[in-house]
Amino acid sequence: MSLSDIFDKIAASRQPQPTGAVEFLIVGLGNPGTQYENTRHNAGFMAVDTLADKLGVQIKKLKFKSLIADCTVEGKHCLLMKPSTFMNNSGEAVREAMDFYKLPPENILVLYDDISLDVGRTRVRRKGSDGGHNGIKSIILLTNSDAFPRVKIGVGAKPHPDFPLADWVLSGFKKEDGEALLRSLDNASEAAKLIVSGKIDTAMNKYNS
Question: What does the pLDDT average to over 139-159?
Answer without folding.
Answer: 95
